[in-house]
Amino acid sequence: MSKPCYIVGHHIISSLGDGAENFYAAKNNITGIHKVTDKSLSQEPFYGALFGDALRSKLIAKSAAYTLLENGIVHCIESALNQYPKHKEKRGVLVFTSTKGNIDLLNNDNTGNIPVNRANLAIMAEAINAHFGFSNPPVVISNACISGVSALLTAQKLLASQAFDFAVVAGGDLVSKFVVSGFQSLMAISETPCKPYDKSRSGMTPGEGCAAAILTRELPKGNKTAIRIIGGGQTNDANHISGPSRTGEGLVKAVSKALAKAGCAARDIDFINAHGTATVFNDEMEAIAFNRLGLSTTPLNSLKGYYGHTFAAAGLIETIISAEFLKQGIALKTLGLEEPGISKPLNLTMENKEVDSPKRVLKTISGFGGTNAAIILETVES
Amino acid sequence: MGQFINKLKLEIIEALNLEGVEPDEIDASAPLFNSSLGLDSIDALELIVLLERNYGIKVTDPDEGREIFHSVNTIAEFVKANQK
Amino acid sequence: MKTLCEISITPGKLEVNHAAVFQSKETLGPAFFKELYLEMNLNYPKFYKMDEISKLFFLGVEQLLKSGKWPSRDGNTTAIVAGTTDGCLESDKRHLANITNHPNLPASPATFVYTLPNIMLGEVCIRHRITGENTCVITQNNDSDFINHYAEILLTDEGTEFCIAGYVNYLPGNYICLLTLFARDLDL
Asked: How many CB pairs under 8 A join A and C?
């Protein structure tokens, strides 16, 4: 079994807003997805989940020394650290993640004052690390769409090795022309807001977001609101660089590893937040994998109908949202889903669903390069 | 049509990075996919880009693409019928 | 943990356990990688679709596993941790050039799928049927202390017997691939 660690503070920004606004919106099944007509992102309009104007302005105004994305991540880290005052007297490490970071700095028409070398993720992380004055160099993970969960599991491993007292797991991604044009060339973007697991699903919706989570090795005294990470697994399908294994090999293995590390069986999971990107192949692969794992009757949802697919931020945002709603005993509605269209049955949440005596949530995620990851969280009272 | 078929083969070889494959190694009537060429879904999408870039033809439905890209001959026929 | 083998690829040169096993006057990346591929006698046409850093990593791992006598049935118990500085920058620039210079045409999907630094790990996993944890770390320089420490952590997991660890970077005119094959120390 793996050594547990604790999430003692967190913060999210997304198309659903800043911090607590996210939880309010999610509980009320509000979507952050809207039609995007900005021609600098795409000649054709598309559905995306971008930051609202107020949030965007707030981030731009925060500091001219940082890019919008950096400001977003710094804001999330500041807000999360406020929930863990002890950080000032402890040894911390920043575990940073993004897929494309400040990619727009490479544009020919970039005339801003931020040095172009901040398009490099290590340099970007170092700039943020220096802002907070953490004594250790940052650890930068870039593992495609599983990055957020990958970073949490890497932090858990580093904490277990005792080199640090706490880890700040933080990162994010923006919706850029770079990414939108790429997914358009793959014909992977849905012409309507995405419909996870739905019969008529036709692709993903790109989204942007930033998040930070503070992980500690020990549970702070008297803390009853922390979430415990009890197991995780990461694998590769060894099948194709951009399409999932049709039999869900990698995901089955990742979840099996996570359950073994957590000392749990499938029946011990109270609900599942899956990847559910709403592409034809991903959702079908998950249906097959969860059936193979004996998880077909466990309440299951996808959050992509609220946030879109926020790439590196997805694993962080969705884990945090799922953990918080675990504490409240709610499995959120799978927004966008109207009529399931997968070949194996899943217990998909068509409305917000109350879960009896909720203890554990399984979060899964898959990504380009054949990556898969799973993480299991439980409430501290468990 | 023979010259056009040869030109098309060269364009396909270049677009799909089929290093070392010569045009006369590709049978114009044989299936392109599920063949020894080892083409996958990304190659199918790349062929869609080839049609738009080289011939101005937009294919928006991947299922339609499956029929068009059956063989070099079917691609050639489609181009001749739809070229702008 | 035990070290089974080390390899390095630098411009025009392949070394195994610090001894040169192949050298060429050709130092330019793409041309040298093709020479090395042909020299290794690999029948793997997918190689030609890869971007530069994926080719470099692929060739490095190919030599590493062969010289390290890695049992090919053990993909399920093998993990990978690879550090890089510039990652997929060449593919990033290619994709950017496509969308900037041809704004009215779709981008190339074959280029776009390589615009993630972990894709090079994916290619190697496919080739050798490696299904264990595979993590891509971005570092400003070769941080072998961290990478080797992380490999050690991965090998404490009962399900992991082998770990491919190292640093790989590609820029036009300057490339490097330094890899180690570690194995769990069964005596412990």
From this structure: 137
Instruction: Give the per-residue pLDDT at A382.
Output: 57
- CB atoms A123 and C140 under 8 Å: yes
Q: What is the DSSP string of C44-100?
A: -GGGGGS-HHHHHHHHHHHHHHHHTT--GGGGGGEEEEEEESSTTHHHHHHHHHHHH
| Chain C residues lying within 8 Å of A139, measured CB to CB | 137, 146
Amino acid at C109: P
Can you give the CATH number for the domain in which A262 is found? Answer: 3.40.47.10
Calculate the dihedral angle through the C-alpha atoms of C179, A129, A179, A33, rounding to the nearest 10 degrees.
140
Task: Indicate the pairing of strand C174-183 with strand C162-171.
Answer: antiparallel
Could you tell me if B28 and B73 are in contact, meaning their C-beta atoms sit under 8 angstroms apart? yes
Based on the fold, state whether residues A283 and A209 are members of the same structural domain.
no
Per the CB < 8 A criterion, the answer to whether A9 and A80 are in contact is yes
Q: How far is B17 from chain A (nearest CA, A)?
A: 16
Q: Are residues A248 and A176 in the same domain?
A: no
ipTM of the shown complex:
0.97
**Does the structure show a pLDDT above 90 at A116?**
yes
| % of chain A surpassing 90 pLDDT | 90
Cβ contact, residue pair A185, B42, below 8 Å: no
Containing domain of residue A92, as a range?
6-216
How many domains does chain A fold into? 2
- How much is the pLDDT for C187? 64
Among the partner-chain residues B16, B19, B52, the one whose CB lies closest to the CB of C105 is B52
Using CB atoms within 10 A of its CB, is residue C46 exposed (0-12), middle (13-18) or buried (19+)? middle
